[in-house]
Amino acid sequence: MLTNIIKSSSSIARTTTRAFSSSSRVLDVSKVILVGRLGADPILRNTSSGKPYYTYTVATNVGAPVEGEGGKLQPPPTSWHTVFSFNEFQHPALQKLGKGSTVYVEAELEMRPYETSSTSAERYMYDRAFLKHQKLSVINRVKPESEQDGSDE
Questions:
Q1: Which CDD domains match (predicted)?
Q2: pLDDT in tens, 68-81
Q3: pLDDT tens for each residue of 26-55
Q4: Nearest 5°: phi and psi at 109?
């Protein structure tokens, strides 16, 4: 019986270490969660092959306000995140959002090379983040500029 337990635990150990090996990517996750406000109305664009996608920016503040000159509280710095949505099922929801809407976004993070100069030998020296939209929840909706002509929904 002890040998069965040892065999069974060694097979579990092999499976566990296998999950962290470079040959299996099944468990790899690179996800970002943003809770913030839209910096502008989402923009509809098309890929070079003609597939529609939306791009939108989310503004976030991290940290507590800090005391500035004269004892006044200064807001923490704002970070801007550009998100790309290729999921056509989310496009109707994005169409209804406007600048200032508060959203919860889950996005897949992909680091891409950033071309600094076409003549430089080290032109792919820096990385830039590419956020691919996965999930969106609206916390507080602001109408897009196209709906703010005085008409109600």
A1: SSB_OBF
A2: 888 888 888 899 99
A3: 678 889 999 999 999 999 999 999 999 999
A4: -95, 125
Number of domains the chain contains: 1
> Residue 2: inside a domain, yes or no?
no
Could you tell me the CATH number of the domain that includes residue 115? 2.40.50.140
What residues make up the domain containing 50? 25-61+74-147
Provide the 8-state DSSP code for 88: T
Residues in the chain, pLDDT under 50? 2, 5-6, 8-16, 151-153
